[in-house]
Design goal:
By secondary structure, this protein is α/β, with parallel strands linked by helices. 39% of the residues lie in helices and 14% in strands. It has 11 helices and 8 strands.
């Protein structure tokens, strides 16, 4: 079964060492987990004051591996010249989407700058990716308190931009409006599965049953995480082979236009 990882990273993290965080080494991890392609963004850019520097580093790492590594840009709409950076990321980096980190960049999902970036990226045909958290909050540095993005705020955002396509990463979604009010929202968002509980609370199963396999995408969180737990999530999910194929690659293939 083909696998496309919607949630992968290359680069450095300010507070702990990341392994498999280069273009060459992440491919070794992907091969170990039999992952064919991965949507990667710069982990370094999350903490850089100017996130564009991380996008430029990402270009260097993925250039020899464009057949398997699909770039996503990290942009801060509250920072000067993001419009120029967005254009560069599409034309030079070849980014298929952007990843937004509002808590790290100190803006809100309801701020004008956020809406402006989403509209500009959508006009360019790019996906909008929003991680609920950048990393496991249990491992946060004691000097940095960054709250998760609120799922219900994202629900309002996707409703405000029905022409945009959102991939929501690294979250627990079952009790949120993204799942509870799915029939009231435009079908323009997909949920990534790497942080959904597959066993005790059966969150992944409940979300799949509520939204359908066509609204879920496979993701691992590498290189912040090992990939094997994501593989087990798919394995224990009660779904047909066709549904698992949709989750593992079919939905992302359509979103990426591959």
């Amino acid at each position: 079964m083909m696998r496309i990882d919607s949630n992968a990273y290359i680069g450095h993290w300010a507070f702990r060492r990341l392994r498999y965080n280069t273009g060459d080494s992440i491919l070794k991890l992907m091969d170990r987990a039999e992952i064919d392609k991965a949507c990667v963004s710069s982990a370094s850019a999350i903490m850089y004051k100017n996130s564009q520097a991380g996008n430029e580093e990402l270009l260097e790492e993925i250039e020899p591996h464009r057949d398997r590594l699909i770039p996503f840009a990290v942009l801060n709409p509250a920072y000067a010249a993001w419009e120029r950076d967005l254009q560069w990321c599409q034309e030079v980096l070849g980014a298929k989407g952007v990843r937004l980190y509002p808590p790290y960049d100190m803006y809100g999902l309801d701020d004008d700058c956020c809406h402006e970036l989403i509209e500009a990226a959508t006009e360019l045909g790019m996906l909008i990716s929003i991680p609920i958290t950048a990393h496991d909050l249990r491992q946060r540095h004691w000097l940095v308190e960054v709250a998760p993005v609120a799922c219900n705020d994202i629900a309002k955002l996707v409703a405000a931009h029905p022409d945009a396509r959102f991939i929501i990463l690294q979250g627990s979604f079952a009790g949120s409006d993204l799942v509870q009010k799915v029939d009231e929202l435009p079908a323009n968002y997909w949920l990534e599965m790497s942080c959904m509980d597959p066993l005790y609370g059966k969150e992944l199963q409940r979300v799949k049953d509520a939204m359908g396999a066509e609204r879920l995408v496979f993701g691992t969180g590498i290189c912040f995480r090992e990939p094997e737990p994501a593989l087990l999530r798919v394995e224990v999910l009660q779904a047909t082979d066709e549904e698992k194929e949709r989750i593992c690659s079919g939905n992302m293939t359509t979103l990426l236009g591959e």
